Structures are given as C-alpha cells and as structure tokens.
Predict the 3D structure of the following.
Amino acid sequence: MPATVRIPTPLRRFTGGSEEVGAAGDTVGAVVDDLERQFAGIKERLCDEEGRVRRFVNIYLNGDDIRFLSHLETAVKDGDELSIVPAIAGG
Amino acid sequence: MAYVHGLRCRECGADYPHAPLHVCELCFGPLEVVYDYAAIRGVLTRAAIADRPRNLWRYRELLPITREPSVGPYSGCTPLVRADRLATALGVDELYVKDDSVNHPTFSYKDRVVAVAISKAIEFGFDTVSCASTGNLANSVSAHAARAGLDCYIFIPDDLEQGKVIGSGIYGPRTVAIRGNYDDVNRLCSEIADKYRWAFVNINLRPYYTEGAKTYGFEVAEQLGWTLPRHIVVPTAGGTILPKIARAFEELAEIGLVDGPMPRIYSAQAAGCAPVIHALHRGSDVIEPVKPDTIAKSIAIGNPADGYYVLQAVRASGGWGEAVSDAEIVDAIQLLARTEGIFTEPAGGTTVAVTRKLIASGRIPRDESIVISVTGNGYKTLEAVRDSVARPFPINARLQEFDQLHDSLAPRPPRRAAAQP
C-alpha cells in the first residue's frame, strides 16, 4: 500500500478533483516524482527549477513538517500520510 | 466607487479576479490586492481624510472594500503616544508608542485586519467566519462576528493564556483547542478551509485581511502631521504587519500624502521563536522553521508564512532586527508600564526590549525619531508577569497597621525623575 497524499484545492485540477491520492516512493522526493508520473505538471507547482520545495509550499509527513525531518530525503513507509499545505497568514 | 482592480500573485504576477482566493495556482505565492493609485491620488487627500470619522475606514480608498464597510466603526485611530519618560530611560531624543493595546473592540492590532476581513466576508455572502489564531485574532473575529450576526468557529493552540481563551468564549463562538502549537493549528485549518465553505479570515480572505494592517502605518504618518518617522520597530509572528506598514508608507508616498525618505524598519522576535531574525542575521532568504518556546505566545509562530516578505521589507529599508529572551521581555513590559503607563502583552514587551537592544548596539541612532509598535494588551496575558509584580501588602482596616507598614517600607526615589535603563 503506497503513501496517501492530501491534495489542496489549488492542485486538484491536476488530480481530477481528488482530495486524496496514493503515491509510492521510499522518500518524500520519490513520492513527489510518482505524483508527477500520475499527474503531469504537478511537480512544477511544488518544486522550483532546482528541485527544492517552493517557498510557500509546506509538506507534512504524518503531521510533521519535513523541514524538521530530512526535507525531500525524509523516508516514507507504506501507509504514511503526506499533506501539501499552502502557507497561511499569522493570527 | 471601488479602486480595486483585482488580485495579483506577489511572486509570479499572475492576475486573479476579486474573489475569496488566497494562493496562486501556479506557484503558491500569496495574492495581493491591486489598486488604481492614479484614481485614488485625486480623491484621498489630507483634507478628505481629516473630514472623516475617526476610524480605520478614513483611508477606505486604500482598503479592498467595494461596498460600505459592515463592521469596525470604532476600530483604529489608536493613540500615538509621545513617550518622553521611556525616551529618557532608553537614552533617545524622540520616541513614540503607537498603542494598539487600546484598539476597539478587542484591544489588539487584529481589530484592524478583522474589520476589513469581516466586511469582505459579508460582501462575498458568507454566513460563517473562522480563523486560526494565537489568541488576539480569535478575540477579534469572535467579537466582530457577534456584532455582525455571523456564525463563528475559532481554532487555537491548547496552551493559550486564560485571558485569550475567555476573551473569545465570551462572544459565543465555537472554540476548538488543538493539542499542539500554532503551526499545527494552521495546518489543520488549511485542510478545514478546503472542505468547509467558510470565510477563514487568515486563509481564504488573507489578501483582504492583511490589507487592514496598512492602517497602522497610515495612522502613524497622519498622527505625525503627514510625516514619516525615521525608525519603526515592529513585532514579527506570521509576518503580516511589518511588510504592510512598509507598504502603507509607500502608498502614501505614491498618492502624494507624504514625502521624504522611507523609515528604517526593524523586526522584533522572541529568542524562543525567532526564525525570521535567524535568517536576517545569517544573510539568508530561507526561513528555517522552529518549534516555538517563549512566553510571547501571540507571536509564537515557528513557520511564518510571510517571513520572507519581512526580510525583504527590513533589508530594503536599511533596517535590522533582534531577538530577546523571555526575561528581557518581562523586564520591558514593566519598563513600558512604569514609564508610560501602558500595559502591553509579551509581544509588546518584545518590541520594547528589541528597541532597547538596537539603541544600545548603535543600530538605531539616539537623535532621530523612533516609533515602537505596541500591538496587544497586557491585561489578556497576566500569567506572563504575575510572578514579577509585587504582591499587595495584606493588612486589616486599621490605621495603626498601615502606619507600621509605611514605616517599614524603604523610601522610593521621586518618580518625576525618569527611571534609568
């Protein structure tokens, strides 16, 4: 069973409207690559030309910001949950 | 007449219609309101502003509303206090405190952004408003929603001060306390906002909400007789207000209401949550998120969405920034209270303490005008100073007991002489 990825509204036009999709990979980076294989064009929205996660994109693995883990190198297991979340103003 | 063209991505420049949208579909950059400054220039004059009621809507052409405002008739127009006793304590010539601790109705700068956001929510036809909050925003959304007759859900971390929690609950919202910090609340709310069709003031109404913060800067300029200070120190949490104060000064120059050099802008953070100051001091554009650990809970945002724009605004202005410890924050809360009679929350203590540090290090010169931005009220966060303030002397209602007490107290230096730092 692959990882589950929660897709935010601005990216759902890539996933045919799906809020949640499955994607496989040993690392967060590999999961993003698998998303790109399934939904061409989505990686460009998440990562810049050098392959780094864009400034205003947050990716969480099971609720933890991957910047507190190993960024795109963070290991992913089957059944893990990834969330892609746009940055939000303070409060 | 409306002076708003629409929304534009601050990063890639993509244009969007006037709608409850907040991120660019192309690059996830934040969307910003685009105004017709040429048209505003002829309408929003000093005289026109002077004739209007004393609330934040006096600058309405530079705010993103297209109908009459629905809320906020008493919000904004807070005092700009000439702070001579604090100036003496800090060893500077000309010092002001812009005091949003007395903003209406909930005693923080958030009453500005919420007045705009709720007016927009009503324009867009929402019946439910919501927010992710470290406390002050929740207080303001709850109060404005009550007055506007809107349903209200607020989401807060579960470790907030009692004053912040009760200060929302009293207005009757549904309050949800998330086990975690503000960044956890934010992540959840982003997913809730995707699912429920509510007006989340700091999510899908973010482009409009943040515009309200400009009125803080507009007022500083108007209250200084349409001049700009040389230096302004601003607290940083998510990074909304500092870039918007910079924008406010630029817009006033753009429409011809002020001239002269732009102020230098300084960011203030608590050492226990200083991701922006770390990046500033490193000379980096990349904000590394942190896990907050500070008594300054209202600015404990470890993953500041607009931190990048704080860095840009500070650097473009020639300013700087510092972080201070919780002990320095508590000390500065007392210094402001005891020199100027203003009781601020730890965010304000942070700003005062950082100002003191920047003056001491020579970053801010002693002979130029300085504004300290106080954005919240200390009566909401009594926990922060409870153990630092002297307990009352308990006596019975007998004159003899008071005489004994009075004789036992060491004499105090006369208060007319200003305190030393």
User: Anything to note?
Assistant: The mean pLDDT of chain A is 93. Residues 37 and 62 of chain A are 23 Å apart (CA to CA). The helical segments of chain A are 28-38, 42-46.
